[in-house]
Amino acid sequence: MPVPARDRATCSRCRKAAVYLQRATGRHLCAGHLGEEVEARVRNTLADDGISLAGSRVAVALSGGKDSTVLLSLLHGIARETRDLDLVAVTVDEGISGYREETLRAAAAVTARFRIPHRTASFAELFGESLDRRVEGQESRACSLCGILRRKALAVLAREEGADRIATGHNLDDEAQSVLMNWLRGDRDRILRDPRHHDGGEFMGRCKPLRRIPEKEVALYGMIRGLFSPMPECPYRQTALRGEARAMLNAVEQRYPGTLERVVEGQCRLARMAAGRILSPPGRCERCGDPASGRICQACRVLEGELFRTARRP
Amino acid sequence: MRVQLPGGTLRTVEAEVMPVEELLALLGVNPVEVIVTRNGMLVPEDATAGGDDEIRLVRISHGG
After folding, report:
1. How confident is the model over A52-74, as pLDDT tens digits?
2. Is the ipTM of this complex over 0.85?
3. Which of A66, A104, A254, A264 is most buried, most CB within 10 Å of its CB?
4. Can you tell me the distance from the alpha carbon of A302 to that of A119, in angstroms, rounded to the nearest whole number?
5. A284 to chain B, minimum CA–CA distance in Å?
6. Inter-chain CB proximity A19 and B51 less than 8 Å
7. Residue B31 host element (H or E)
8. How far apart, in Å, are the Cα atoms of A161 and each of A21, A109, A158?
9. Distance (Å) from the alpha carbon of A247 to chain B's nearest alpha carbon
């Protein structure tokens, strides 16, 4: 027995069937208005963060998952109406068997669809071994290690591609999880660091155009635009502190809608207060020249066995 | 109604009509973490489901 039509909620901006309840505002949105609002919020985020993309070459970090695919699509739309904005997609193959193959195929397909140049490189090519091999015996640290090396790999690829900025697909949920994780780890520097972007002066700029978009809206946008199909889960996902931070925050978000946004906005306010007073801007790694909060950047410390030293391998 | 959980497992839930949010609570799924389709159409969590409906839950988070 089908459910009667009276149960269909309608969009708060038109009379079409709603696909989404925006819990923080109590509004319903249809597919068209959800898409419009996501696109507008991305443009506003770039403007509020003082980022002008005109005349620049932006390396879009493309994993092939939903966030980076949606990011690429949105920036492709912005590029069509922005003077001299060039995009190049850069993909890092960390070497995670059973997970990466499908997302790499998706990354290749979406760049072909939008006719955007695409560069891929693997951890094995860049750093001598895959993530799977590097984390044998210390799988619980895979996400931390992967994050450090992926960031390094993206910087290398972006530089080689002549980009002046890297855009990443971090969404609101990612940002709130990072805030909570920094507190859980008691990481003073990261607690006080501005999470929005950094221009870094002499370093390559970064931006996070999706940082105000909840993950659910990113996923819905991707489905509505035909960009998102379910992907396999990263096998290391459940071993990460991020997984626990995600579960905690989502439980609170369900009961108190808008929590994620408040957590991130609070962090931005704190960072603005701390800027130039408590935290110094990043220096240059003595070994590779990339940004570093100490003398040596984390990636160099990993690659030279000073961080995440392994107990395995004959 | 037939419910496809994230991961593909199928469950049958006997109910005339219930809010999707209630169905998710019954299945131990947080609505913040899934997209719901009813008979192939995206629906918000305050929509209702029941009878012969085919419900599919798609988990939105896949990264590390």
Report:
1. 899 999 999 999 999 999 999 99
2. yes
3. A66
4. 24
5. 28
6. no
7. none
8. 41, 20, 5
9. 9
